[in-house]
Amino acid sequence: MVKTRGLAYHGEVAGSAVRKGTTMSERSETLADDPFSGRQPTSHERMTGRPWDASYHDGPAPWDIGRPQPVMVRLAAEGGFAGAVLDVGCGTGDNALHVASLGFPVLGVDVAETALAIAREKAADRGIAAEFAVADAFHLERLGRRFETVLDCGMFHTCDGDERPAYAASLASVTEHGGTLYVLCFSDEGPETGPHPVSREELRAAFNPGAGWNVAAIESARVQTTFHDNGAPAWFATIKRV
Ligand SMILES: C[S@@+](CC[C@H](N)C(=O)[O-])C[C@H]1O[C@@H](n2cnc3c(N)ncnc32)[C@H](O)[C@@H]1O
């Protein structure tokens, strides 16, 4: 059953309460001046009329389930991670923290500073060493770093068709040749698809050999949300950097 909280994906106005432990008050002046910190608003932000950061102001966002996605837990248990790991659009960090807890060096990046503050607080509370930094997923080359494993849990499906080539190029710029990108996104295989359903063909088109990618596998999966009882239909893609 889909619960109404899911409407938050499409941007109902959030209240002003800030989750305990965040430093929103410190950031509010900067965010009020320019909520996008000088970057181009994403298609999702244009559609909803508010910055990603606002999704984290009023309690857990609908994708913020407070634990790692089961697909990621299984992947880690099966040895799917290697080397330095980048989590793009990491949100409040549960996936990144799970991987870091296994001993991998992990950087989580996001444009939502409130989410990053929560992620850092979780890392401190759990005694897990993980790095969290503000970075634009469309300009990851600015990090000046490369990663053997890159994780996208719910970021790709927020991109519209016009944004996908730039996003794939940005990911390619930070992924070691021979490295692996994992994408967990809503799929178009109903019923009760998530708010940004993506087809297999769209995944293959975005991560094509001309863009430096080879899609190794696309599996049917579930992505857990706070408003689906048993998760929403998803694709779990394993994509190699060529
Ligand atoms: C659907 S949420 C998923 C968050 C997290 N991966 C999870 O599974 O809980 C998408 C995340 O991508 C972030 N995001 C969206 N556009 C971004 C961009 N251009 N650069 C970096 N992060 C972005 C949002 O702030 C949000 O935290």
From TrEMBL:
Renumbered to this chain, region (Disordered) spans 18-54
Q: Which Gene3D superfamilies match?
A: Vaccinia Virus protein VP39
Q: Which GO terms describe its molecular function?
A: S-adenosylmethionine-dependent methyltransferase activity
Q: Name one GO biological process term.
A: methylation
Give UniProt keywords alphabetically. Methyltransferase, S-adenosyl-L-methionine, Transferase
Which Pfam families does the entry mention? Methyltransf_25
Q: Which CDD domains match?
A: AdoMet_MTases
Task: Output the InterPro entries linked to this UniProt entry.
Answer: Methyltransf_25, SAM-dependent_MTases_sf, TPMT
Q: Which residues form the Methyltransferase domain?
A: 85-179
Q: What name does the UniProt record give this protein?
A: Methyltransferase domain-containing protein
